[in-house]
Structures are given as structure tokens and as C-alpha cells.
Amino acid sequence: MIALIGAAVAPGIAILSYFYLRDSLEPEPISMVIRSFIFGMLLVVPIMVLQYIMQNEWNWRDGIVAEVFQSAVVEEFFKWMVIYFTVYKHLEFDEPYDGIVYAVAVSLGFATLENLFYLIINGTNIAIWRAFLPVSSHALFAVWMGYYLGRAKFSKDAKHERLFLWMSITLPIGLHALYNLIFLAVQNWLVVIVPFMLILWWQGLKKVQRAHDFGSKNLSSRPQ
Fold this sequence. Notes:
By secondary structure, the chain is an all-alpha fold.
């Protein structure tokens, strides 16, 4: 059981540590990051209940509907709501990269508990696959979400803030839906999912660097 828990938790902790340690400007209080991680874990059960209702009570059993709405829309929307209402207005969110840190923390909290449930049901033989695909994909969708939340937070006018907030929810939903549809619609999905994940990592790391660049400009413009 200890090995199973370790296999479920380790990928999320490792990826979160990576993004947390990339915050070279003003690292976030570890208590805030842990809190966000726990909030993400707490989302798992209500989301599973809602997905069960959609599938069994609303008869949303079609593959495309299930993958787009029950998975991508529901999961990313609730993660976004948690970040927006618990972190976005917080004083500790004081540089653009913070959006990435907190979004990744919430998403990996969700992915870690979900991963534990999957391993309990299916065994540790799928642990490596789960770490490289579902867990890391949740983190990478969160990078996009957090990047645009950071841009919104430090926008100079309300119009741009609304635009970036909209992008912070629609782009992760779109990426998550595309990720799910690859498994649903592509017979030899491995040929497609590997380059897709590589592109996600490449673009995600570019977002990390851009967030740092915006953060450096923001710090340099503050009154001394």
C-alpha cells in the first residue's frame, strides 16, 4: 500500500517542485502552495459526482460529449474557479509567474488524488504511463491557465484583464479536450500523443520564461 501511495503521489510532487523552484523572483509561501494543492485534491469527489450525474442522469454517454464536457470543461472550469476565488485577489499573488505556481498546485492536487484512485483500481503497473501522460498533462494545462491569469492580474486596463481571464479558462479547456479526443479518435494514439506532449512541454516552458520576463519588468517598475 505504501508503494502504491508513493507511486501515485510522487509524480505530482516532483512536477510541482520543479515549477515552484523555477520561481526565482519572489518565491511563494510554501503554506499557500500546499493549501492550493489541497484545494485541488478536494475537487476530485464533487467533480466525480457531477460527472456521474452527467453520464447517468443526463444520459451524456456520447464519447465526444463525455470527453469534452464531462472531462475537459468540468475539470478545468472548477480548477479555474478555485484559483480565481482563493488566490487571484490575494496579496501573495504579486508577480505574473505566481499564477503558474498556484494553477499548477491546484491542478496537481486534483491529478494526484485522481491518480491514487486509478492506481488503487488498476494497480501500479500503469503508474509510469499515468505519470508521463495524465498527471503531467494536468500540470501543463495549468501552465497555460496560470500564465494568462498572471497576465490578467497585472493588466493595465479592464479590457485586457477580461481578455486574459477569458483565455485563462478557454485555452486549458481546449487543450484538455484535444488531449482527450486524441485517445478517443486516433487508433494509433501513441504516434500523436507523444509529439502533442512534447509541444505542450515546449510551449509550457516558453510560458514560464515569458512570465518571468513580465515579472522582472513589473518588479523594476515598482516604486523603490
